[in-house]
Structure formats: C-alpha cells, structure tokens
Design brief:
CATH superfamily: RutC-like
CATH topology: 60s Ribosomal Protein L30, Chain: A
Number of strands: 6
CATH architecture: 2-Layer Sandwich
Shape: globular
Strand content: 25-35%
Strand order of the largest sheet: 1-2-3-6-4-5
Number of helices: 2
Structural class: alpha+beta
Length: 125
C-alpha cells in the first residue's frame, strides 16, 4: 500500500500544509513564491520572483530525489496577466527538454502580500 510521505514541511508551524508530499512515484510541491528563504527578501519584479520561485522548486525537488526534468504539471498563479510574457520568458529557461503541462491563472492576490507569482508543480520520481 502506498503511503503519503512528508518530504518538506511548511516554513512556519502555524501554516496548515506541507511544502512537499511524496505519494508513490509522485511528488507534489505546494505553491512557492519568489522569496529567498535564507534572507527573507522577495525579488522586486516578476522576472526575479519567477527565477527565485523556480529555484525554490528546484531545491525542494532535489530534496525529494527529483529534478525539474521530472516535472509533469505546473500551475502558475499571477496577480496580473500583463506579467505573463516576462514570467514566461524566465520560466522557459528552467526546462532543458520538453516543458511540462501547465496552467496559468490570474488571481486577485496571493497569501504573501508582496508576491506577484506563485508556482506549484507535480513531478515523478
């Protein structure tokens, strides 16, 4: 029987979710924003936030024994669809082979009040 495995917990114990869950051969990475976890700083623009969010995802996938090449599906949340082009330019640079399936949705706001983008992924391992 497949069991759910908590690979990475939320940054704060008060947050009611895990950052990364493994289930069989799948890895589920919760939505991550472009905040540097060491410094607490968030990039000032969409390109920097997208780059940092993808680096955060890369790090979480590596902890789970996977890589960005293993991503099957991504969901991108943008606070303004006019940011799509700049986000997309940075996002595409993270996938060396065929990019994963993806949805992109405009939202009115994100829980991290400074965030312009949040990205979640599902990967295989």
């Amino acid at each position: 029987m497949t069991k759910r495995e908590v690979i990475s917990k939320a940054l704060s114990p008060s947050m009611p979710f895990s950052k990364v869950i493994g289930y069989g051969n799948l890895i589920f990475v919760s939505g991550l924003v472009g905040r540097n976890w060491e410094t607490g700083e968030i990039a000032p623009d969409i390109a920097g936030q997208t780059r940092q969010a993808m680096e955060n995802i890369r790090r979480e996938l590596e902890l789970a024994g996977a890589s960005l090449d293993d991503v099957l599906k991504a969901t991108v949340f943008l606070v303004d669809m006019s940011l799509f082009g700049a986000m997309n330019e940075v996002y595409r640079s993270f996938f060396s082979t065929a990019p994963p399936a993806r949805s992109c949705v405009e939202v009115s706001s994100l829980p991290d009040g400074e965030a312009l983008v949040e990205i979640e992924v599902i990967a295989g391992r």
